[in-house]
Amino acid sequence: MIGILLRQRLRRDRVQLLLWIAGTAAMAGAAVSGVTQSYGDLEARTAVLATVMANPVILMFRGLPSGAGEEQVALFLILPFLAMLAAFMSAFLAVRHTRAEEEQGRAELIAATPAGRVAPLAATILHGALANILLGLLVGLVYVASGYPAAGSWVAGLAAASVGLCFLGVGLLAAQLMRTSRGANSLAVWILVATYVMAGLGNALGTPSDDLTRMESSWLAWLSPFGWAENTRPFADDAIWPALLAIGTGAVFVGIAFAVQAVRDLGEGVVPQRRGRTWAGRSLGSPIGLVWTLTRGSIVGWAIGGLLTGLLATSLASVVNELGTRIEAVQTLFEALSQTGGLEAGMVVIFYIIVGVLASCAAVQTVCRARQEEAHGTGEPVLASAVDRVRWLGGYLVIALIAVLLTVAAAIAGSMLGAAGGDWSLVEDAVVAGVGQAVAACVFLAVTALVFVLAPRATIVVGWMLVLIAVLIGLFGPLFSMPEWLTSLSPFAQTPTLDAGAVDVKGGWWLVTTAAVGAAASLALMRRRELHPSG
C-alpha cells in the first residue's frame, strides 16, 4: 500500500516538485556566473568580505563567510536561499499530504482501506525524502559541472537537502498539532522564519578571523537548521556532521508526528480551536468584514515584515555607499539591480523590491483564501444569502488591496524611522519605490483573481508560482547576469523609481492597466462562474 500511495503522490506533485527542484538548482547555477562576473578577482572578494565583517547586520541576510575563494563566496551568497527553498518545499509537501487530506475527507476514505492511518504518513515521508535527495543531487551536480571541487559540491547539496529534510519533519509535526492546513502551514512558516533569523543573528554575533575572510558563528546559530547547514562550510571545511544534525532533528520530529497521530482522533488536532464569541460583531454583516476577520492575522504579519524591511532600506544605505565607493564591481552590481544612478538610492530600491514581494504575497494569500473557502464548502453558505458572486469575490479583492497598502505603508513608516537623524532625501526614494511596488503587487492580485475565476483548482499553485518566478528574474536576474529582456518581464523590475530628482515611470502605466483590467475581468466573469467545492 505504501508503494501505491507513494506513486499517487509523485504523480500528483510532479509539476510542483519539478518547479521547486529545478528552480533551486537554477539559482545555484546562476550564483556561479554572478560571482564570476561581479567578484572575479581575489581583491574584490576580500574587500567584500572585509566590509561584511565590519557591518555584521548584512550577515543576517546572507550565509557564513568561510574564505575568499570564488566557490566559497558563491556559497556565502546563495546557500541560505537554497536551504530556504528546500525548507518551504518540504513543509508545504508535508502539510498538503497529511492535514490537507484530512480536511478534504480523503484521509478518512484511505484509513477505511487496508492502508490504515500509518501508510499514508509513511508514504509522505518517503515522498519528501526523495524530493530532497533529488534536490541535493542536482545542486551538487550544478557545482561539479561548474568546475568546483567535487567534495565541496556534494557537501553543498547535502547542506541544502538537510534543511529540507528537517522541515519535512517540522511540517509533519505541525500537521498533527494544528486542526487546519492553514494553521499547520502558518506554524511551519513561522518556525522557518524564526530559525532563519536566529541563524543570521548567530552569524552577526560571531567572531571574525584576523584576515577578515572567515566568521565563526556564535552559539545562537547552532540552535537553527540554517546555522547547521552553513557550518558545513562547503569548499572550506566540508564538514558533514552539522548536516547530519539537521537530518537527525527532522527524524525526531517525524517520530513525534507518528506518536501524536497514534493518539489523536482523525480530523482533530492537539492544539484546540479558539472558541468564537457568542455574539458576532457588526463587521461580519458584510462580505468585506468577513474576509477581514478571516485574514487580518496574516495581513498584520506581512505588514510587520514590510516595516522591518523599510527600516533596513534607509538604515543600511550608508553601509552600501561605503562598500560601493571602495569596490567598483559592487557599484556596478547595485546600479544594475536598482537601475538608478546613486548607490544609496539604489539600496532603497532593492529593499523595496523585497517590500513588493511581501505585498504581493499578502495579496495572493488573501485571494487564495477565497479558493480555500470555496473548496472547503464554507463559501457556499455565504453565497446562499443575499450576497452574490461578484460581491463575494469583490470583498476578497478589496481586502487584498488593503493588505498591499498596509504592507507598503508600514515599509515607508519604517524607512522614516531608519532615516531619522540621517539622509531624509532617501525617504522620497522610499515613497516613490513603495508606490511603484504597490502597483506591481496589484498585478499579482488581479492575475490570481483571474485564475481563480477561470481555473479555480489552479489558483493556489499558479498564484504562488507567479510570485516566485517574478522574484527570481526580477530580483536575482541582474545579480546572475540574466538577459535584460527576461528581467524586464518581472513586474518588480518595471516599477517607477526616482532618478536625479525626476520620477522614471518605466512600465508603471502598463502595470496599472494590467491590474485594473485583470481585476475588472475577474469580477465580470465571476457572474457566470459555477462553484467548484472539491479541492
Question: Can you give a write-up of this model?
Answer:
Strands 1-2 form a two-stranded antiparallel sheet. A two-stranded antiparallel sheet has the order 3-4. Helix 17 (389-418) packs antiparallel against helix 18 (425-454). It has helices spanning 2-12, 14-38, 42-54, 70-96, 99-104, 106-111, 118-145, 150-177, 181-204, 225-230, 241-263, 287-315, 317-326, 328-338, 343-375, 379-383, 389-418, 425-454, 459-475, 484-487, 508-526; strands at residues 207-208, 215-216, 497-499, 502-504. It folds into two domains: 1-271, no CATH class; 283-535, no CATH class. It has 535 residues and is mostly helical.
Main features:
single chain; 535 residues; mainly alpha; 2 domains; two-stranded antiparallel ribbon; 21 helices; 72% helix; globular
Largest sheet: number of strands, sense, barrel closure:
2 strands, antiparallel
Low-pLDDT runs of 5+ residues are: none
| Domain unit count | 2
Q: Roughly what percent helix?
A: over 70%
Task: Determine the N-to-C terminus distance.
Answer: 23 Å
**What spatial form do the alpha-carbon principal axes imply?**
globular
